[in-house]
Amino acid sequence: MKRYDAIVVGAGHNGLTAAAYLARAGLEVVVLERREQIGGAAISEERHAGFLYSSCSYVCSLLRPEIMRDLELSKHGLRIIPYENSTVIARDGDSLGFFHDPAKTRRSIARHSQRDADAYAEFNRDIYRQCRMIRPLLLETPPDPTSFSLKDLRGLRKLQKAFAQLGEDGLAQAMQFWTMSCGDFLDRYFESDLLKGSLAGNSIIGTALGPYSPGSAYVLLHHVMGDLDGHVGAWGFAVGGMGAVSEALAGAAREHGAEIRTGAEVEQLIVRNGRVEGVALAGGEEIRATRVVSNLDVKRTYLKLAAPSDLPDDFLESVRNFKIRGSSGKLNIALERLPEFPALAGEPLLRRGGILISESMEYLERGYDDWKNGQWSREPFLDITMPTHYDPTMAPPGQHYMSVFVQYVPPTLADGPWTPEKRDAFGKTVLDTIELYSPGFRDLVLDCWVRTPWDLENEVGLTEGNIFHGELTLDQLLFNRPIPGYAQYRGPLGGLYMCGSSTHPGGGVMGAPGANAAREILSDARHKFGRGAAA
Amino acid sequence: MSGGTYEVAVIGGGHNGLVAAALAARAGRSVVVLEAAERLGGMATLGPAGEGFDSAGAAHLLDGLSPALVRTLELERHGLAFAVATMDDVALLPGGELLVVSGSDPEATRRSLGRFSPRDAERLPLFEARLGRLSAALAPFLDRTPPSLRFQAWSERLEYLRLGWAMRRLGRRDMRDLLRIIGMNSFDLVEEVFETDALKGLIGFDSVLGNRFGPRSPNTVYTLLQRKAGTLAGRRGASLLPRGGPRALIEALASSARAAGAEIRTGARVAEILVDNGRVNGLVLADGSELDCRTVLSSAHPRTTLLELVGAGRLDADLVRGLRHARGEGGTAKVWLRLGAVPDFGLAASALGRSRLVFAPDLGFLERGHDCAKYGELAERPAMEIVLPGLADSHQLGSESQPILSATLANVPYRLRNRDEAALKRALIEHTTATLSELAPGLAETIEAAEALTPREVEAATGAPGGHWHHLETGLDQTYLLRPAPGLAQYATPIQGLWLCGAGSHPGGGVTGRPGANAARAALAAARARR
Questions:
Q1: What is the Cα Rg of chain B in Å?
Q2: Within the 168-187 window of chain B, which residues sit less than 8 Å (CB to CB) from chain A?
């Protein structure tokens, strides 16, 4: 019977990244994907004739440039077009734009508040200082602060140095950044509700925190620390939708010899003497390998694939206590033509980027309160993009694809689980909200695919529909992610690794967890067989 | 006009100011305390002026008072005594049920909690022990000056090592536990362990009282640990009921300070701290007199001290901004009721006197109260802590025939949205009365008088901007070496000779005396080093 060097469970972008790195190092790798299409939540799907939807994740910024280089993703067809600007629109017809040209942004903010326009430069400087500190840590394995091993001490030293180079002021700011609320943070700089609402949007996307929950300032950082072509905080569209990212990664993996099987659902791990020896598929087929790498989140990996009897009790309890909370929904809409946004009449260019609906921080906080009470936000935060501005191939000529990301949407509702009727009601809330800002919008809708956290869980496999595989709070970051003591991509079972977003540095189409896990796996392989054996 | 010459002047006669003064006087310095109001005690003894309420004070329980200070300052010799050394926590529930978490009798706790959940009854002692171990690692640092972020002085590097060592000494398992939960919210922590709503509400209440937090706000585990660390260094699990109320503590502190030679002046408002060449060069009082002194310890709010008494113009712009942005809008209020009879909470009068009653029946209730406060509203049913001090302490007003009920309300808005202060005051009394009437049938009919104290009244009476009980919130972003603002955490200020010794400094509020003591020690050590 064939025995692989590694099985990767799940062909999400992190699984594919790990597979590509492992195959590149000479390992014999097979990727097993439950669905018929690879990509997980980085996927493009044709649900309405002629329209290609980026049906889950929808923009690209965080994908690490190191990975793009290492795996030669552009050779494999990946093209990312940065968007030129973004905007937040208000119900009263006002708007505020963020442009590629800082002078234009400044003018736009100054229309709301001269003071804020001045503070914006300072805000950017402070944010980027923190981003520059964090970014090198993304592709590092978090050190274990309780360990005395040389590797961990070295890692801690590196961490300490990264912080220390910020200097006294920067360090104090970093400590506040990691612990305070985004709302308090933004209140330090700005007075305009619309400006604060739009910036705070970054602090709540994908997370079950409100803008005034302590810790949300870090989430803001998590969203702006990406870069495109060296522009920190820049966002872009992948040509062909987010599925193109997965396809390019799969291309790289295949080029190095990895096998990718779809329609292959892993049901359980095969464990002998505390070591994983392979997996059993839903049909009964068994596949053997020296090691198994799980792209699933930590709960699915250890509570579904593994048998409880193979795991220590306190570890299982920690896994159960890991916080994965669904808080987002998604609408994919096919439009007959471009909708009108009266607020953007004077600046049609602004339609080409992200359009936020986020009136103020209180608007977001009240949306969060609804979520806490088991109700989708009655006035939701929306992040609207129309990638067809840049990539007309995603829709028939003249028509447009609109992606609407919605925050907050609970994984189950106060009055019970999701039903098709409730899904429709939720979709209606969102469409009605857009209609308020774009009269006549609803008449343009050719197709509307509503996805609740329930759908994201049951179709894509995101537990509770959480887009990050786990909350990005201090207790679940760095050496705490996913479980203290098991933050280095390994768990208590020999030969089983994690490479999904449950691990450091967390979610977003970043690829870093996959790349980090691959590095750790290769390091173990070298130790075991001596240098060169893995290659 | 000369106001005299002293080595040390202490601004503010609250408990922290008096602690600092007593320690400085004991070290042989000539000391004067300058209190703007006509009475000493600051926030701790704020109370209603109304008839029959005279001895009530805001800080009805002392749970973080440093026992080392009680010894050092010989407070017991100066009259401090405790009517009850260990209060029982009693969770009040709608429908009249009670959950008793006794401070002294584990078996009673077990019995009471066992009726709700035998599993939780098993788990509570383990949970207490767990938090006890973790907070014990933090406790010594409550009495030490936080290091700066400069990493230069050897003494500071040593402090970081000490901190690291305290973590390591916990052992791997506890250290991991601490590093995980310290940034968490209390909601998640108690949900991980317990199933009884009443118990979860009780723990959640302790994690939010005093700050503008809901149990779902991250950082609330830290506030719980800090509270625990404070009491742990005192008597285990103890809420102390001072005999004679908080005023008795203030009198003991003042007496101790005077005995050591300190002079205490009331009605002496400081108008300006004179600065010459970056050094303190005396004080100007509101009456125009000048005081000659080289060391000033200020227990006033850090913003008052630095931005008003010194003046923003003398300070670095970043420092000023940090101070201005420090969060400190009060979110706690008091209501006192004078009753015509002992209220029927389902407890005998003697047990009632020894109990700290808490109304926070579940976590969702607390969170909703917090949501109200966020938008400038007061919850219909506010979460509160209730004590009837007169029942256990004959030195306080209120007896079995005319008990005084002292309630501390959590999650109170600093101001009601679109309504005035009088409306808030009315709402506080009405909502409290309505809530209590449901818990103690017939209570409303026995109310003879009612008084409330709002954050803005605290602000007006003490001059602390925001009227926050801890001067500043005690979340992780405003704690330890970030308190009150980066660059000011070592009690020293950029003005040589000027020290911060109030609740705005580490370790923060509550009637602990620790900021005053730590600041006095730092100031005295610096003075010695200069000689």
A1: 22
A2: 168, 172, 175-177, 179-184
Q: What angle do CA B272, B275, B279 make, to 5 degrees?
A: 135
- Joined together, the tokens standing for residue B384 give 């509160």
Residues of B in contact with A184 (CB under 8 A): 325, 327, 477
Q: Which residues of chain B have pLDDT under 70?
A: 1, 49-52, 54-55, 232-239, 397-398, 531
A151: left (phi over 0), alpha (psi -120 to 50) or beta: alpha
> What is the ipTM, given to two decimal places?
0.92
Q: Are A179 and B181 a contacting pair at CB < 8 A? A: no
- In this prediction the pTM is 0.94
* C-alpha to C-alpha distance for B503 and B214, rounded to whole angstroms: 22
The residue among A328, A300, A373, A60 whose CA lies nearest residue B363 is A373
Q: Please classify residue A312 by burial: count the beta carbons closer than 10 Å to its beta carbon, then call 0-12 exposed, 13-18 middle and 19+ buried.
A: exposed
For residue A251, give the amino acid letter. G
**Do the beta carbons of residue B410 and residue B369 sit within 8 Å?**
yes
Closest alpha carbon within chain B to A213: B217
Q: Which of B43, B233, B225, B206 is nearest to B144 (CA)?
A: B233
Give B319's contacts in chain A (Cβ within 8 Å): none
Q: Are strands B333-339 and B447-453 parallel, antiparallel or unpaired?
A: antiparallel
A-chain residues near B217 (CB < 8 A): 213-214
- Among B530, B408, B512, B420, smallest CA distance to B60 is for B408
Q: Does A212 touch chain B (CB under 8 A)?
A: yes
**A215–B contact, CB cutoff 8 A:** yes
Q: Give yes or no for a contact between B519 and B499, defined as CB atoms under 8 angstroms apart.
A: yes
| A159: enclosing H helix or E strand | helix A150-164
Q: A179 and B183: CB-CB below 8 Å?
A: yes
Question: Residues of B numbered 183-242 whose beta carbons fall under 8 angstroms of chain A's beta carbons: which are they?
Answer: 183-184, 188, 192, 213, 216-219
Chain B positions in Cβ-Cβ contact with residue A173 (cut-off 8 Å): 486
* Contact present, A78 and A246 (Cβ < 8 Å): no
Q: Is A187 on the interface with B (CB under 8 A)?
A: yes
CA–CA gap between residue A142 and residue A483 (Å, rounded): 12
**pLDDT, position B1:** 59
| Sequence-distant (≥ 6) Cβ neighbours of residue B71 within 8 angstroms | none
Q: CA torsion sign, A147 to A148 to A150 to A153?
A: positive
Give residue A236's pLDDT: 83
- Identity of the residue numbered B493: T
* CA Rg value for chain A: 23
Q: Say yes or no for a CB contact (<8 Å) between A145 and B167.
A: yes
Q: With a cut of 90, say whether residue A219 has pLDDT above it.
A: no
What is the C-alpha to C-alpha distance for residues A279 and A259, in angstroms, rounded to an integer? 15
Among A118, A177, A180, pick the best mutation site for testing chain B contact (most B Cβ within 10 A): A180
Residues B167 and B138: their CA atoms lie apart, in Å, by 9
Question: Could you tell me how many residues make up chain A?
Answer: 535
Task: Flag whether residue B157 sits within 8 Å of chain A, measured between CB atoms.
Answer: no
